[in-house]
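Exercise: predict the fold of this chain.
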Amino acid sequence: MSPWLQHTSFAIIAAIAVLASILVVTRRNPIYSALFLIVLFGAMAMIFLLLEADFLGFMQLLVYAGAIMVLYLFVIMLINPREGDLPEEGGAVDRVVAGGTASLVFCLLWFAIHESALLHPELPAVPVVFPELASLGPEHGGAAAFGRELFHEHLLVFELASILILVGIVGAVHISLRTRRRVSAGNGLTPPAARAEEAAHV
């Protein structure tokens, strides 16, 4: 792939990823947010493929855009959020704080890009503070390198993330059961647990 085509493809995919990430956090319906998150994962997988990390790209599609998103959608469907049951969004203060923080971040990014030496070649180059990265070997993005990083260098973070997902699933099940009990009580229906206890006493 020519450098021009590679840079153009990266720009298009990066724009799609940024747009999808914005839609994830701005949609009120969590199902729409999950669908846009799938688009974001697909764009990230394409970026991995452009970086010649084929294994990471396909794992991004299979694990995150596949298994993890199926789990997210299962939890969302289990809670069954309705448009009328969704809580109201933050008030004026929360929106002002969020908008100010986002504006500050975008201003910092705009200043960093505008003052870059790539846009102003006449400016003196900024000295390199961090050491240069080592050249990529033939196993870059492969299964061996991925397994070593995941299960050796970042094993603790990986296990903490799995515990966090498990806690989220348990919390979703608890919320769904509590909501069903509340609906049954409001309709004058006896919950299944109470019916079983009454049958045992009889």
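Check your answer against the key: The two ends are 77 Å apart (CA to CA).
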